[in-house]
Fold:
Amino acid sequence: MAMKRLSELGAGEGGRIVRVEADAAVQRRLLDMGLVRGEAVQVNRLAPLGDPMELVVKGYHLSLRRGESACIHIETEA
Amino acid sequence: MATVALAGNPNCGKTSLFNALTGAHQHVGNWPGVTVERRSGTFRQDGLAVEVVDLPGTYSLAARSEDERVATDFLASQEADVIVNVLDASNLERNLYLTTQLLELRKPVVFALNMMDDAVRDGWTLDVPTLSALLGGPVVVTVGNRGEGIEALKAAILAQVRGDDPSLDPAQWPPRVTYGDDVEGEIRRLAEEVRRDEVLTAHLPGRWWALRLLEGAPDALEEAGRSHAAQAIQAQLARSRAFLEAHLGAGVDTLLAERRYGFAHGLVREVGRREGHPARHLTDRLDAVLTGRFLGFPIFLIVMVAIYTLTFVVGKYPQDWVSAGMGWLHDTAAAHLPPGELTSLFVDGVIPGVGSVLVFLPSIMILMGCVSFLEDTGYMARAAFIMDRLMHLMGLHGKSFIPLIMGMGCNTPAIQATRTLEARSDRLITILVTPFMSCSARLPVYILLAGAFFRPLQGALAVVGMHLLGFAVAIVAGKVLRLTLFRRENAPFVMELPPYRLPVLKTTLLHMWEKATVFLRKAGTLIFAGATLIWFLSNYPGLADRDLAARHRAAEAAVRAQGLPEAEEKAKLEDLDLAHKGTIMNSSLAARFGKVLEPAFRPLFDPDHRRAEAWKDGVALTAGFLAKEIVVGTMAVVHQARAEGEDGAALSPLQQSLRDRSGLTPLTALAFMVFVLIYTPCLGTVGMIYKETRSLGWTLFSVGYGLGLGWVLAWITVAGGRLLGFA
Structure:
């Protein structure tokens, strides 16, 4: 188990959300999109210029900028 | 008439369901006070008329963005009698999150389980009767884009409107998320305080208020703050929050969202089963190419070139037909109406005014059709995904590329295309920087001046330079606006990448039609009024001068009496006409205005104060507010030299005249080009900015800062050039 920020993951890596820490508007948006504690997320791919990233969460695809994905703390298997 | 609100996530097929429900009986307007479109329509069944309102797609009712606030306000209002919650069956869990909030309103709800075909293809089996029982409302399976299940949906809506299905009455048996003992206790306490104010709970449950206050919804806090029980409510809210955060180790909004998603997750586990994992989804395979490292950008560029070509190259044909039609109308009216002021108003004011509105229609319809197509296929989100890094550097959003690229063709439809941006700050910044993109109407001005003052290679460089400068100004302005005026509006880039889907042609066509009518109603009136005003300014008082008109007619008669060969006579008459128009223009209100403006333009176009005709620049630029290419035509009139060159001549008479007599130098001509590039957007664009921002303040701001910036940059060009030794 290792604690990381979501923004540190590369394509194909994933983990489980431990907590989300962002200012109110961003936090609200992230929660509404299903990025809640305990949820499994996987990084599907990065945009050609490295940012934003494409995630799979709750079976759908979502893109986030690094600024926002850095607010999401996750634990990974490795 | 009963009113039904269609609510659901973005990309859940709500709009095609709306189209299937209401057919052609639609009306597009605006929600009061915001830039969000309000689409409503009606259907009639069993002698009952039902109004359907298509709410903006929203992921939650926690009310942060304009779209969400509009949807939430309408759902909570008394206007909405029945809610139709559209659910994307292939993405049920995330869609049910919104449902948990809708249920808390305790209004009659019908659930449309839409896109069932996609869900089946993904291997889902859904137990509809159980879902209906657990949600406490009728569930109708639909495939909106094929019109399947629409009759059943109408019947279910009518049953709710009539209230003749008591077993499904949500007030009788409200299924709801339970938030656990600790949270429920605080909800009860808070709801009790809210119930002290009968106004708040007259139409909405106390529990709804308590939940919204706990999760910190700004509009709920505001409304509760105005209540006579505000103190009691706020005191309880503070106590509840402190208690919950201390006991449960997370913010209340986090807790509520987790419980809601827990409920949605449990529901899906109860009613759904997924058979195996289908082989790699088509969307995934397409994405590997379309957003891939190697082909992502080339394909994006091809798509953009295709749209640009369709809009501005193919769109040129219908645009030319419009121009030809207006030209014919103009000539016919001019030939058949007696000369005079009224005729001039009609021929030179009204007809070109209508023309200046209609001329935008083809490109608006084509571009909006393309944008709607890109959105509906899902490619728009991918394009935003690969472009966001670059756009973010400019303080913009991934989706801002459409207005910026299309702005090189024409700013007016480009600004309408900012509609695809959801967040208000993203949209406003994009609207404010798009006019700096050098549109094709500015090209004739560059060509006129570059041709007159530069050698061919220099001239080409100057024209390319103008386009680059426009782009650079857009970048800097975007960044500066983001860091100053919009610093506090944080618009996170959290964007769903929906599966690729085939769009429905009817939806695209309806969208094009809608955009065209809204443009004509909202922006067209302003553009028409502006065009007529400019006609007035550039023709009065000279047009009303009878002596002048009499002299012009006498001169014409004298030419005709000479019995010259036809071609020569025609040329002479045209010269006379130009001279006459020039006389009117040069004594007009616009010319007086140009003279008033002259000192302001002096540092730019006449730094040594040697040009006798410098005031003519002001006239041309004032008229150019109508449309930037008009600068050329107006210069031809004020300098009384034709803009069209003779065959074989290197320079047109106007270019020759500018070079020999106007006193402009290559450096001041360059400053003139810079000014034309940056100064106020043209009238069509201003009309569109007003329509899209719904704000006179932002419209005036756009005009004002364009003027200021244009002046400063032109001044820098002149002052810098002189420092470097150019003249």
